[in-house]
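Dear support,

We are seeing what looks like truncated structure output for some complexes. This example has two components. We would appreciate it if you could run it in full and send us the complete token output so we can diff it against ours.
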Amino acid sequence: MNINVASSTRVKSAARAKLAIADCDLHPAPNGLKELHPYLDERWHRHLEMFGTLRRHGYQQGPAYPKGQPEAMRRDSWPPDGSRPGSRLGFMQWQHLDPNNVELGVLTPISPHPGGFQNAEMSAAFCRAVNDWQKAEWTQKDSRLRASITVPYEHGELAVGEIERRADDPEFVQVFLLSRTAAPIGQRRYWPMFEAAVRANRPVAIHAFGFGGFPITGGGWPSFYLEEMTGHAQCCQSQVTSLVLEGVFERFPTLRVVFIEGGFAWLPSLAWRLDRHWKKLKSETPHLERLPSEYIRDHIWVTTQPMEEPRSAGHLIDVCEWIGWDKILFATDYPHWDFDNPAQCLPPALTEEQRGRIFLENARSFYGMN
Amino acid sequence: MAKHVVAAVEALPPGSRKLVDVDGRPIVIFNVKGEYFALRNRCPHQGGNLYEGKLTGLITSPEPGRYEYSRQGEILRCPWHGWEFDIRTGKSCIDPTRIRVKSYPVDVECGRHLVEGPYVAETVPVTVEAEYVVVDV
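Here is the complete output from our reference environment:
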């Protein structure tokens, strides 16, 4: 009699999503900053070696709050050679792009996003390097991928320079910054960046995180990572409010802004609150011609991950209805630990049309790829 | 239910785990301090591979400022979102009555009994002298 031991299998990829998807928050990372050396003048190699990178964050190495998993990564996302999650295209293709049927992947490099480096020249040099690296190592090697114009967002004229450098390159689809800025993002110091984005016909993407130098909630420094995760909604609300009330959308009527990884269920209630107060205080912001909610409805897009999870999916659908089914872009956040699996994360109650828009069609039209 | 031989005992020492395919079902077998457990290799939340999960303990708190850490090595954290499961029952810590991973009984059988059957054969020969980990699926 021949009795056998059950066969050991390789960890299988997630079930293939039924529909092709656009992943609008896909994180590549250099396997250490030295991988950026080929894209930097030697002057910066020496500088990095001697002084490191300074953020608006005081004397601390790494993030302010410990993460839910090591380095905030899926535990299964380390490539077999031990290099950093998100640093190897082949592994990303095998684990994510192929099995999850990603038709369009928008790269959002945040580890690091050099736009937050304190040294302005260094910020500009490293943003330029990250952009060259995205093109050389990612978009030119996989036609599904598109790059973000990583900008030194605290320094208007340097940000403009980087946007202009990429303006004629269709592989760069958006201007890209982090949400915790040194001042509310609608203020005049950031207008040259918005003006350049409009001139280059690119939307502006604002991704959660970064270091503004201030407490990460509106109520001071919290105790838990859970508060940081939830607090992104506060930060993004401040930024939406600033964009609207400073008149950025009056000044740049064709500007489109997408908020990435900040959630979105807060957006309708923020708009309602703004409308209520603005009706009484309109004279304080006479440059606004319309209700705040109207600017929001016309100019703000959001990505899905991490979606709020009300007990009744109907509540989430009501929120989507208000924001607009054309304004919601799908995102997984791969390879980060809070990755959303496209096969399972959208509410089952969505219609096929809504699902198709969120998964792919909205991103295609947002990024002008129809 | 049928019993499936999944490993020779010496191939699954304490602290190790093994991913097997039983009739198309991915199942992960754990040896925790000499006890064997088998769970479906799929997190009920969003489908993470539990084979890659970390075995940890149970943290409970009778009141703010006090905590207890118990059952070390018996709580499995999903490698993606960190949902936690009792390795003995497959029940989730967050909602044990509604959310659970499918778990399967595991035994150790000697090769002599296996040869007599009725066990499901797969790919590697069994000898009468050795002992084997068997999962009931």
